[in-house]
């Protein structure tokens, strides 16, 4: 095999890596070991990419190719100091090389001059777990990522809505000021959002697979404000929906609005072919809706 390692190029490789993730997701076992493509897309078009100057360091992502075919990727998500590993099932022998690459290229420097890195390893990947242990990583359970899933059926998608609220999609109305405010308030930021943040909302909506009709909001008719939101991303190759983000204005919580927007989003994805819903969380909120535990990506940290 003539396997080559090179740096990631956003313009050249973004879609290619996305297709690699799509193709490797559907041939996996019941427990995925790679990211799904929607998470890759969400990462690249999130406002933090500009806010944290992450486009400038995308070239630190490593790509392994065999005769021009992508067979492995090592990357961060929202900051340096993270490493996620994506690989083809036929190239699992690259794990040690990929871990070495992460240590050399994706660490984050501290004020003391030392570096640290957090790597994320599927709980069922015992081979990779042994590799990180040999490299003196320590498990950081608080930073581990728990995932849950729900097999979709119509009987699971029923919800009730307080009479004074309406449910609609961003295809019905796409008011970026209202959208910016619910995402600001819904993630517990105080006060009113800065108007320049609206550009970040436009950025997210420029993602190739962003579908306004699958982004659902609850609306307060008295003022027209969006008071709860569920974003969703449909993978038509593997027939699932990835739920991200979900947020409710603190002034409107415990009214069933979060449940309503999530189930409405899942319903609309079900109508176009989704059979499974995925979310990167296992909070009680999702368990109450019907999500079940799926798997955990354990976090392992090393200071060096």
Automatic annotation (TrEMBL):
Q: Which GO terms describe its molecular function?
A: acyltransferase activity, transferring groups other than amino-acyl groups
Alphabetized Gene3D superfamilies for the sequence: 3.40.630.30
Family matches, as SUPFAM superfamilies: Acyl-CoA N-acyltransferases (Nat) (SSF55729)
**UniProt xrefs under InterPro entries:** Acyl_CoA_acyltransferase, GNAT_dom
Q: Which residues cross the membrane?
A: none
Q: Which residues form the N-acetyltransferase domain?
A: 165-304
| Protein name as it appears in the record | N-acetyltransferase domain-containing protein
Q: What is the species listed in this Swiss-Prot or TrEMBL entry?
A: Candidatus Woesebacteria bacterium RBG_16_34_12
């Amino acid at each position: 095999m003539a396997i080559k390692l090179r740096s990631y190029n956003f313009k050249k490789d973004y879609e290619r890596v996305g297709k690699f993730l799509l193709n490797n997701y559907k041939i996996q076992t019941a427990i995925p070991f790679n990211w799904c493509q929607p998470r890759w897309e969400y990462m690249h078009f999130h406002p933090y990419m500009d806010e944290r100057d992450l486009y400038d360091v995308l070239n630190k992502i490593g790509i392994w190719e065999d005769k021009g075919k992508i067979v492995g990727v090592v990357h961060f998500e929202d900051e340096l100091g993270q490493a996620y590993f994506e690989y083809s099932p036929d190239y699992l022998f690259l794990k040690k090389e990929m871990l070495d690459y992460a240590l050399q290229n994706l660490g984050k420097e501290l004020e003391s001059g030392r570096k640290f890195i957090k790597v994320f390893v599927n709980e069922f990947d015992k081979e990779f777990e042994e590799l990180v242990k040999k490299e003196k990583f320590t498990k950081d359970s608080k930073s581990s990522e728990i995932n849950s899933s729900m097999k979709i059926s119509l009987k699971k998608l029923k919800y009730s809505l307080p009479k004074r609220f309406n449910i609609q999609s961003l295809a019905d109305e796409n008011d970026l000021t209202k959208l910016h405010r619910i995402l600001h308030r819904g993630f517990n930021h105080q006060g009113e959002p800065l108007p320049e943040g609206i550009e970040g909302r436009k950025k997210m909506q420029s993602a190739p697979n962003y579908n306004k009709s699958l982004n659902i909001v609850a609306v307060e008719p008295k003022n027209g404000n969006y008071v709860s939101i569920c974003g969703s991303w449909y993978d038509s190759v593997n027939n699932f929906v990835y739920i991200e983000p979900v947020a409710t204005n603190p002034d409107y919580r415990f009214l069933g609005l979060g449940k309503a927007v999530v189930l409405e989003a899942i319903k609309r994805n079900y109508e176009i072919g989704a059979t499974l819903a995925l979310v990167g969380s296992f909070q009680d909120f999702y368990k109450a809706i019907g999500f079940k535990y799926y798997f955990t990506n354990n976090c392992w940290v090393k200071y060096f």
